[in-house]
Amino acid sequence: MIVSVENLTREYGARTALAGVSFGVREGEIFGVLGPNGGGKSTLFRILATMLAPSTGTASVAGYDVERKAAEVRRRIGVVFQSQSLDKKLTVFENLRAQGYLFAMHGRALAERIDEVASRLGLADRRNDLVDTLSGGLRRRVEIAKGLLHRPTVLLMDEPSTGLDPGARRELWQYVEELRDRQGITVLVTTHILDEADRADRLLLLHEGKVVAEGAPADLKARIGGDVVILDVDEPALLLPDLRARFGVEGVAQNGSVRVEIGNGHRFIAEAVEAFPGAIHSVALHKPTLEDVFLDETGANLT
């Protein structure tokens, strides 16, 4: 595993942000960490980026312990922060050149590397533009270019789509997938956005600092099986025992409705509406999503 985390904990006084987190990331994959805000994602990111020491447990990147060999880890990671780290009064080129200086890059080698990275990220014709004039999507590309400049083996991205519109978000993920496919770069990304998490090769679901599930998105959703049916009713708690008695299903009362996981959802809807005339005001049906997986594992909503 190019990233290895073993029984990692982090405490802030009486509050536990991470509680015994363990997982591994394979070389050349996009690994997502999915969870709600406050679930521990950013704390995990900061530990892997050597910005924060764990309370107990260990984490390593490319075989180097993030606490004891922090300098070696920093040479091998690129970091894209949730908040912008660009100087808006400098050009794209000037931002990248300053980043290169931090890694002892200089002269023609640095200039050529800037040209290479800018070209790959579609920034070649914007290199002399002030960052302040760029769109949010272009600024994110510059952030990624900074993270890739020194040829890292692992790219860490913390909520990279923050502030981006859906079009810019899709474009960003196209570049992330190209990094994996064309350059073999390992990407670890934290997110709370479901369509982003669906594009990861594997996912870790975090809730209240604990791992609640891990696996490929399709495999996680397959745990549910069948369809997810939402029944809008006046008294959800009263309908649950009737559903159990009539159909042998265990529904969940949620936000003024009843949620049921069942095969042949269309048939169940017709039979439920007929069985409880007037009690069901509207229905909805969808295939399992990662939101459903998270709800199943934690009893809480992702958002």
Explain the overall architecture.
By secondary structure, the protein is an alpha/beta fold. 37% of the residues lie in helices and 28% in strands. The chain contains eleven helices and 14 strands. It has a six-stranded mixed β-sheet with strand order 6-7-8-3-9-10, sandwiched between helices. Helix 5 (136-148) packs parallel to helix 6 (166-183). 36% of the residues are buried.
Q: Keywords for this structure?
A:
303 residues; 6-stranded mixed beta sheet; elongated; alpha/beta
Describe what is shown at a glance.
This protein has 303 residues and is of the alpha/beta class.
Which sequence of strands runs across the widest sheet?
A: 6-7-8-3-9-10
The strand count comes to 14
Which regions are unreliable across 5 or more consecutive residues at pLDDT < 50? none
Order of helices and strands: EEEHEEHEHHHEHEHEEHEHEEHEH
| Rounded radius of gyration (Å) | 23 Å
Number of helices: 11
**Amount of helix:** 25-40%
Major beta sheet summary: 6 strands, mixed
Coarse structural class: alpha/beta
Gross geometry: elongated
- Percent of residues in β-strands: 25-35%
The pLDDT mean sits at 91
**Distance linking N and C termini:** 31 Å
Give the SSE map:
Blueprint: E1 3-12, E2 15-25, E3 30-34, H1 41-48, E4 56-61, E5 64-65, H2 70-76, E6 77-80, H3 92-102, H4 107-120, H5 136-148, E7 154-158, H6 166-183, E8 186-191, H7 194-197, E9 202-207, E10 210-215, H8 217-222, E11 227-233, H9 236-247, E12 252-254, E13 257-262, H10 265-275, E14 280-286, H11 290-298
Parallel strand pairs: 3-8, 3-9, 6-7, 7-8
Antiparallel strand pairs: 1-2, 1-4, 4-5, 9-10, 11-13, 11-14, 12-13
Helix pairs in contact: 5-6
